[in-house]
Amino acid sequence: MKLPFANRPRNLGWYIGTRLPAALLLAFILIPIAALIFGISVSGFFAGLRHPLVGPALQLSLSTTLTSLTIIVLLGTPLGWLLSRPKGRFLHWAELAIQLPVVLPPAVAGVALLFAFGRRGLIGAWLDRIGIQIPFSTAAVVMAEVFVAAPFYIQGAVAAFERIDRNLIRVARTLGASPVRVFFRISLPLSAPGLVSGAALSWARALGEFGATLMFAGNLTGRTQTLPLAIYTAMESDLRAAQSLSIVLVSVAFALLWAVRGGAAQLLARDGGAMRDRAELPPAERA
Amino acid sequence: MFRFQVETTVGDLELGVELSVSEGPLILAGPNGSGKTSLLLLLLGLMRPERGHIAIGEQVLFDSSSGIDLSPEERSLGYVPQEYALFPHLNVFENVAFGLRSPATRLGRTERVRRVESLLGEMEIGPLARRLPRLLSGGEKQRVALARALAPRPRALLLDEPLAALDVGARRQVRAFLATYLAGLQLPAIVVTHDAADAVALGRQVAILERGQVVQRGTYAQIQAQPRTPFVAEFVSAG
Amino acid sequence: MSRFRTALCIASLLGPVGAAPAQSQPAAGGEGRELIVFAAASLREAFEKMSATFKREHPGVQVTFNFAGSQELRVQIESGAAVDVFASADRRNLNALKAGRLVEAERIFARNEPVLAVPSGGGGAINSLEDLPKAKRIVVAAPEVPIGGYTAKILERAYRQYGDQFRKQVEGRIASHELNVRQVLAKVRLGEADAGFVYRSDVASVGTGVRAIRIPEELNVTAEYPVARVRAAKHSKLAAAWIDLMTSPEGQLILGQSGFLSGRPSAARQTP
């Protein structure tokens, strides 16, 4: 079967050389997810959803990740902005240190949090004296999520702010705009797509957080048992429930990413090309 | 009258300049790295000099001995940076109107619209009002940038390489336009350039900056007659 | 400076990678056979000691362990993990595998006594099971975990004995359901939990930091540890040999030193 002339690749070697590895990786990522979704019947799925762990876990995951995300964005945006400007040695090292939660195994992160905020911890001991205990609380879940997920947002924010032409900021200042006005009228709109995708990544990471949460916050239905913990717990007694929960988690994460990407695309369309977007490439440019 | 005297170190460049601008634009020329852009940033308040005094008319913008240091948004100086830096997410109208929206200018909406439209008309870019910057030609962008800088009625105008981003054909056209426009403007203006043709067309006085110091000052004819450094000699020969 | 930094980065990345394979290097001049044992978390110290003896008796054999909650191990075996021996902390998980015809030749090789663990030096407010409500935070294992199942039974009996007030207070203070007994132990040791239910052998394994409080005999249950050979085992003879070691006087001595009770029920203990 011969392809019509317009669709025939010019250089077969290049075509295969690029498509084959890409297809392999894509398949590797998609097949387990497909297996998860299609490995259970529809009735089995709904039966699994009726497991008592599902409701509380879903609610807890959504509420804690929303809280974490809010904290991360509120605190991470100024931090990202600061790190994107010329910085001294302190901030330089701080930027490196901030990446640590990414490379730290989550269980280690959990242990570290315990050593800091546990009842005998560096700061936790003081808090304990005034009656505040953090481990085993929902607040601990939020803290674990913020710890592991914040670096993703900060990285995205730094990259987004760095890409803004310095001259835009300078001109805006000379036109009478205070630093606050410059930030909200110029920097923020221009960095919005990058901030949004950073936030999406961050949110996804927080949703999936397991090891640090288990270690630092514990595992109690309704208080600290997030979706990933519920899946792990359910797996040992009711595989169907674990499967249903996993599908729920995948769907929630997918919906979030999709909504966020959609939002980001809208923002991209408005920035007038300050950042190069795919819309600018001529269609069907052959490469 | 725009008077300033600044001394500071920028990287490994020792900058020490004392100049004044009254009638007609002052051309600031010099080799790369001589501190021309830095000087503009210092005047605009985007960088702080170690010592100096900057004043325009009666208004003191900066004085190191008495601790006066107005922030950039208070100085009321118009600025057109290299490559114009139009706000990419705002259309032409919004770009030009940007300086009119700060609380300091205190303009109502109708007044704002009127002023922007009149400026756009002056620059002959009225029909472009709703267009986004990325769809403008170089010459059009330059005019928008100029309009934007002038809209808040600044006390002086600073232009950094206003024609460098244009191709040769556009450059000639825009140079002519700019020359007429600047001549008609009653504002002190500083134009940074490395192009001698600009110097001839746009300004009355020329100051040559080399390694952070003014090495020669005068009218173009004067420096052409008696170039004091090799750079100046080469500069005027290209004109 | 930058080269040093690069080297440092690479070294830190390779460190864990380089350390890992060391475990599975076959002994010099041996046949390189590997016996894989899945065992309940509480058996860690006893089994590691036993493996030294086993390797002496079977030169060239490497013993690889996977210590985790028995429920977790069961799921892994059900999903087809390659393993030769499964030692569980309760009959429930082994029975599940028996029902799936995945194991054979089951034997009880040890018993263990659940105890109430409290941080040592913590003020000594809790000295008996009845004092449990004094603990601000109680940590137990999830019900699927063997010790979690035993704890649930113990608490049921305790609620009947000590009344509703006791029950309400204790239930309100349970702060987490951990996924294996060593995590419960760790939380108690760290001082994060004021009390937790673990095995006597766990307290023995840790030495300091934790104090064991005995549970009244009439309320307590005895944990029975069965071991079985996995049917799909690669080295059935070795598996059988390992199980023999566990039930031999030498193995029993090691288990006893680690705080376990003998595999043979004594007349005084009743299994539920």
Structure write-up:
The complex is a heterotrimer of chains A (287), B (239) and C (272). Chain A is an all-alpha fold. Chain A has a single domain, classed as MetI-like fold (Orthogonal Bundle), CATH 1.10.3720. In chain A, 40% of the residues are buried. About 3% of the residues of chain A have low confidence. By secondary structure, chain B is of the alpha/beta class. Chain B has two domains: 160 residues, Rossmann fold; 70 residues, no CATH class. Helices cover 36% and strands 26% of the residues of chain B. Chain B is built from nine helices and eleven strands. Chain B starts with a strand and ends with a helix. The model of chain B has no long low-confidence stretch (mean pLDDT 90). With 272 residues, chain C is α/β, with parallel strands linked by helices. Chain C folds into two domains: 118 residues, D-Maltodextrin-Binding Protein, domain 2, CATH 3.40.190.10; 100 residues, Periplasmic binding protein-like II (D-Maltodextrin-Binding Protein, domain 2, 3-Layer(aba) Sandwich). Helices cover 42% and strands 22% of the residues of chain C. Chain C is built from ten helices and ten strands. In chain C, helix 3 runs parallel beside helix 4 and helix 9 packs across helix 10. Chain C is elongated and about 55 Å long. The chains are: A mainly alpha (287), B alpha/beta (239), C alpha/beta (272). Chains in contact: A-B, A-C. Chains A and B meet through helix 9 and helix 10 of A and helix 2 and strand 7 of B.
Name the CATH architecture of the largest domain in chain C: 3-Layer(aba) Sandwich
N- to C-terminal distance of chain A: 24 Å
Q: What is the CATH class of chain A?
A: Mainly Alpha
The pair of chains with the biggest contact is:
A-B, 22 and 31 residues
- Tally of alpha and pi helices of chain C: 10
Q: What low-confidence regions of chain C span 5 or more consecutive residues with pLDDT below 50?
A: 10-30, 267-272
SSE order of chain A, one letter for each helix or strand? HHHHHHHHHHHHH
Q: Work out the count of structural domains of chain C.
A: 2
By DSSP (H or I, 4+ residues per run), the number of helices of chain A equals 13
Rg value of chain A: 23 Å
Portion in strands of chain C: 15-25%
Per CATH, the class of the largest domain in chain C reads Alpha Beta
Q: Looking at the chains present, what oligomeric state does this protein adopt?
A: heterotrimer
